[in-house]
Amino acid sequence: MKNKLCIFIFFILFISSCRKISSDNERQYFVFQGLANKDVILYKITKDDKKNKVYYPIMKVSTNTKVLLPKGKYFLANECSSYEFNNESEKEEKVVLSRVSIILGSKNSEKNSLDQKENIYNSFCIDPLDGKEHWFINKMNFDILPGKNSLTISGRNIDLNFQAGLFSDKRIDLWPLKLSSPINTDSSKFFSLPLDLGTKDKKFVISAPVNGTLWLQTGRYQVEVNGSKEVIQINSNPQNIKLGVLRIGLPRNFPIEVRLKAGGQPIFAYINEKVLFRLNTDYPVFPGKYRVTLEGTEIEKNIQVNEDELISVKTQGAMVASPPCSEKYEKCRPPSRVTIHMNRMPFVLMTVPADMPFLVFDQKYEYGIEGIKGIFKNLYASEDSVRVDKLGRVKIKWETRYTTGNTKTDFVRFESKSMNMFGKSIDIMYFKPDEIYLPEGDYWLSYFVGDQNLILPKTRVDVSLGGGMTKEVTVPIYMEKTSENLTAEKNKENSSLSSKTTLSPIKN
């Protein structure tokens, strides 16, 4: 009986040992090495019905550990890298986690210390499982698995291909670029875009506050601050670029509320026709020449900005006021818009309604009135508020007179004769208009009446027009009378231009 029991126990132990040997043959050790206390996720790779890979997370694996795994395909991953391997060979599988180190252009540890407010570089990587981007600011080290992986540091891609069994510590050198402004500009940033990259390389802009330091890899970059741009070559030397400051001022007491009530908008300015600037705001810009334009106008000024210098571009306020409508008139039509000119040129730099405050630069301008082209008056503006110039109103009574022969009215126009005014209006159409607005000043109302076969002097009538005043004048229109039967029909045609009433060439 005892012999049978011993044989049975021996048989059970033999079967158990065989099963253990068989189980060990189906498992293999995986060795994960690298710097201490680094973790990655281990996934088991299987396939679904459509033979697509499926990743099942198994465990978190720490560096310098040895794990017994069933044979098969596995996948290691962290936020920036991945590695796929087969755990099927007779030898244990060894995988080493390497490192990418960011070196800030100096071996001096004091220079390598980062202040988040003053030193900035950006980096990102693609998550190997979900394809999402992971962004980092001022990250000094990255743990990278073997195989082909990539990082993007300061706007430039870094392709990596570490060996599975060897530890690598790849160094990425960054070099400082600092843009210095002479004034405190907490809200201003400068931006950097790599230029010398291939078409497949991803480009992205990185930024830092002015008076801070941006760390970049060597290469060419387009650097922009407040719309001003420069191309800068980054090499193995620190660069400190000094900026200037541009300010476009607003008159201290400019009546912005009056402007808004008159239908106007807040006023902005542009530099180089593209970049919008708020008034009374300091903007650091690269040294250089700039064209400053008031929004919605051709009013412009060219300026030079030097490094470490604050350039203040002055604006001045002005307004052209319309005259009130007297009680003796049932109604008065509103004046046409005011046109702003320079150097007595006819083209318009800006058009504004009457009674609306507007801005110009500290330069010489003239203004005119739409509908009475050709007469200009010097525009005076104020550095503190607005300088108001007043319009006058001329009520014209067109008096028709019939004559025989060739005696006719040839032209009617206003000619300026004040010191601060110049020009003459284009010929005024008969019967249109009956109301004209002109800048305050002295004029000649000129017209020619006589035999059109002869050259006779024109007639001039002095018209002194005060600002805000209305002046009535009578202008005779001589027309040929052919017969009494045609008179009524001619009178009907007076609302336009009679077929016998033509504007012949001006005879001065």
From TrEMBL:
Residues 488-508 are annotated as: Disordered. Residues 494-508 have a biased composition (Low complexity). This is Lipoprotein. It comes from Fluviispira sanaruensis.
